[in-house]
Specification:
Distance between the termini: 34 Å
Strand content: 15-25%
Number of strands: 7
Number of domains: 1
Largest sheet: 7 strands, mixed
Structural class: alpha/beta
Helix content: 25-40%
Radius of gyration: 15 Å
Shape: globular
Order of helices and strands: EHEHHHEHHEHEEEH
Number of helices: 8
CATH class: Alpha Beta
């Protein structure tokens, strides 16, 4: 584990929320971060940790994350809470970030492992990188997205409409831009262009 200028190890918390169709695009980015020298602490939302879907079984996703990172995924409030106060990581990535999670973050709710981890990291002024993947990004959860765009310490992986004809309200980040977004966020810069 490499130390950085502020003596915080080069560790990133990487949270996955229940946009299950996006997991296949996210895992290669975790692999890229590990190859770049990052220690990745995986964290799962309640849904991601427990639900089997047509995109895979929860147990298989957990096993894949542990194999990639060398760490069993964090899944509880108790595991998420000390991340910030103990300065365990330099940043947090939430990818995929669902509309529900964005709205919870915008409202200051910390009732899930992901939102409590974010609150914990924000306590120390650590950047939170969001990679939206939501079917209602331009409708029901748009208000949460708009609020977070105005908040200090929140950075977004550039995003665009997922399928403007079949799903006109859906937003999806370009996950290949995740490492670059993280690098920019650590310097206090939003990677541009934000809208794809």
């Amino acid at each position: 584990m490499r130390a950085t200028a502020d003596d915080t190890p080069q560790v990133v918390v990487f949270a996955l929320c229940g946009s299950f169709c996006t997991f296949e695009a996210v895992l290669p980015q975790i692999q890229r971060l590990c190859a770049m020298g990052w220690e990745v602490l995986p964290l799962l939302s309640y849904s991601a940790a427990t639900l089997d879907t047509r995109f895979g079984r929860a147990a298989d996703w957990k096993a894949a994350l542990e194999e990639l990172t060398g760490h069993a995924p964090l899944t509880t409030l108790q595991e998420a809470e000390p991340l910030g106060p103990k300065r365990m990581a330099r940043a947090m990535v939430i990818a995929p970030c669902t509309g529900t999670t964005m709205v919870r973050l915008a409202q200051g709710l910390s009732d899930t492992p992901v939102t409590l981890a974010a609150k914990s990291m924000l306590r120390g002024g650590r950047p939170i990188i969001l990679a939206p993947s939501t079917n209602d990004g331009l409708s029901g959860s748009a208000v949460g997205l708009a609020q977070l765009l105005q908040r200090k310490y929140y950075y977004f992986v550039p995003f665009g409409q997922d399928d403007s004809f079949k799903k006109p309200h859906s937003l999806k980040s370009d996950m290949s831009l995740l490492p670059d977004t993280l690098a920019c966020a650590l310097s206090g810069i939003q990677l541009q262009p934000l809208l794809l």
